[in-house]
Amino acid sequence: MPKVTIDGVSIEVEAGTTILNAARKIGGDLVPPAMCYYSKLKGSGGKCRVCLVEISKGSEANPNPMPKLQASCCTPIADGMEVKNMTSQKVQDMRKGVVEFLLINHPLDCPICDQAGECDLQNLGFDYGAQTTRYQEGRRTFDKIDIGDKIQLHMTRCILCYRCTYVADQLTPHRDHGVLNRGDASEISTYISHAIDNDFSGNMIDVCPVGALTDKTFRFKSRVWFLKPYRAHRQCSHEKCNGQVDLWMFGNDVYRVTARKDEYHEVESFICNECRFDHKNKADWTIEGPRKLEKWSVINQGKYMKRTAEVNIDTEKALLLGRDQDRKRISMVAPEEAKKK
Amino acid sequence: MGRKILTEHINVPGIQGYDAYRQHGGYRSVEKALKMAPNDIVEEVKKSGLRGRGGAGFPTGMKWSFIDKKSGRPRHLVCNADESEPGTFKDRYMMEKIPHLLVEGMITSSIALEANLSYIYIRGEYMWVYRILERAINEAYAKGWLGKNIQGSGYDLDLYVTCGAGAYICGEETALIESLEGKRGNPRIKPPFPAVVGLYGNPTVVNNVETIMDIPWIVMNGGEEFAKIGIGKSTGTKLISASGHIRKPGVYEIDLSISVEEFVMSDEYLGGMYSDRPLKACVPGGSSVPILPAELLFKTAKGEQRMMTYESMSDGGFATGSMIGSGGFIVYDDTTCVVRNTWNFARFYHHESCGQCSPCREGTGWMEKILYRLENGYGTQEDIDLLWDIQRKIEGNTICPLGDAAAWPVAAAIRHFRHEFEYHVRYPEKIKDRKHFEYEPWEKVKHLMGSKEAVAV
Prior knowledge:
- The complex is a heterodimer of chains A (341) and B (457).
- Chain A has 341 residues and is of the alpha+beta class.
- Chain A contains nine helices and 13 strands.
- Chain A has helices at residues 19-26, 89-104, 120-128, 163-171, 203-207, 273-277, 317-321, 324-330, 335-340, and strands spanning 3-6, 9-12, 52-57, 70-71, 81-84, 151-153, 177-180, 187-190, 213-215, 228-233, 244-250, 253-259, 286-290.
- Chain A is globular.
- Chain B has three domains: 18-228, NADH-ubiquinone oxidoreductase 51kDa subunit (Rossmann fold); 231-333, Ubiquitin-like (UB roll), CATH 3.10.20; 338-449, de novo design (two linked rop proteins), CATH 1.20.1440.
- Chain B has helices at residues 18-23, 28-35, 38-48, 60-66, 90-97, 99-113, 127-142, 173-180, 209-221, 223-228, 260-265, 294-297, 310-313, 317-320, 338-352, 358-375, 381-394, 402-426, 436-439, 442-445, and strands at residues 76-81, 117-122, 158-163, 204-208, 230-231, 234-235, 237-244, 250-255, 279-283, 292-293, 328-333.
- Chain B has a five-stranded mixed β-sheet.
- In chain B, strand 7 and strand 8 form a beta hairpin.
- The radius of gyration of chain B is 23 Å and the shape is globular.
- Chain B starts with 17 loop residues before the first helix and ends in a 12-residue tail after the last helix.
- Chain A binds chain B through residues 45-50, 52, 67-69, 71, 74, 76, 94, 97-98, 100-102, 104-105, 134-135, 137, 140, 159-160, 162, 178-179, 181-186, and chain B through 167, 169, 184, 189, 191, 350-359, 361-366, 369-370, 386, 389, 392-393, 396-399.
């Protein structure tokens, strides 16, 4: 089997594997970030350019380095290839550039965005973003369109990863939406304000790396880090759906239902709209147990594993604590249990 | 007077029609090619050293030899007539004047590639040229040069003209293929290359109009004869579409062996500068290639004479050289504002970016906005450095070469004309009028910028 070395770590993988997938097999910090690549969707990848890596040795047969940085999600490995990701200054520099490009037209509405806390662009911005922007022109805006009663489209937040169009192509019987126009005016849209209506349309929400497509039934209900995700399943009658989901609960209330996601924020199996939107009742589900969260995830609210330096904030204590009724709501304990106490 | 390969019969009356074209030696290369083994034609083209005339200059024979003939899948030849580069209009001129030469070249090349279904993809704005080609193809069908069993040889070929919808990006070969398949014209991610997986998943070769028009001559006269014209690896003749501040703009066929100075100044070609104003800069190969200042146009940085060849034009890399590209030769005199010109190019690339990959989609628009600010006197010194940084981050990081093409003109303009950008920043009141350099050319305002030489980046 061909051997590839990424940031000094060698691994043997099957021929035809992409660099990104080889890196994911190794795991850890050396995995390049990916905004548009989605292993479950055929043909995705190559568009966002954040996964660019430097190939310092082409292969055993042709040891010359590649002149340009290559998109790791669509470059197949060759035997003896040496790849630099975190160790290459050039790659880090370029990735900062690409993140800056992605952010110049992205609105800074994280405080009111439902995706905040589980947003890939937030994570990327945290790792590679600059403190200030160098962009002083107006950000681009779009006319709002309504794509149905289940999904909310915020085109201004979109980074045009094309994942949702692949979902529509590959999961649903027909595609109602696509990309209109070109260049920085291109937008995800249904042709002449058509509603997206099919059994698997909800998966567009899960694959969206940013808050461009969000769940209308969960809109502004809560922040994700106030909810606790549980693994759950139900007997689903839809042939393509196995009914295995994550329930996002607050106490005994089910706030939203999403597909199960792995460590790279990709869904494990796509779920149908019935599971996602119509069963917001705890009794409909068999709960398996709490979902294991990533160590540094913001959803681990209150249980940070990372030690932080103590900060003394010089202000009135009441101001920091907030109102009593708000504090109760923020706690992970269900309201009725809190009452008992 | 140079050799005329393509434009030899261009002024014959009625050459647009079949009869006049046939009388002047038309379709003889098809007769000859049908008797040759297909691989021998490819060998002839390899020997000729013909390089792709669309801009990148990749050897055509080599491109043809990459095509996958073993898989047994049908092969296609696609002619790229989506000529949308600002400054380039050679293909339109040729297709208007002598459409049968393209049809003949398509047949001969298809024989070499053993393709039975070929396409000409023409841009949507060339609707009248589309009709001219349609007429030529219909005539060729009627005379038995296309269709089943061509001239009794047992070889079948169908040729279609397809019209694009007016997007520059569809001139990129994989985007062209996507558009031809009826999809959105987004470039594909390579590999796989079109020679393996192209149109409808079949092996495909995409060639420029001019490249295909060269093939009949090569088949008739042999590749070695073609290689005798020109210098070194730049063989044959090249069509140059000249425009700008010159006496005689138009399409010229040149041997790839004359000097740039001869081309610009001699009466045979461009006839010197319009109203004898001094030369300021030149874009030698269409809007995508780096701009060259006057002092680097006739002489290379080493002091050698610059020739109209692929190698000499790119001598010194992008620091002091440029590219022959698609042959869109734009000459500027001292009334031109380089900042405005760069903004104009940036605006074009902003408009034509397909929006698929982030650096090009966001970066081209950003560059255009900054250049617009600079051009209108609202720029700052930091904007010039920011512009440099943006182009550096676009170049080489995109799926297709459009990102590079958008970055190079900006980079070259800053590299060679930084002083003009700084003039725009420091004297906003002087550049308010877009004709400011017509009233006061750079030589007259140079003293305002102090004696300090412009620092090359």
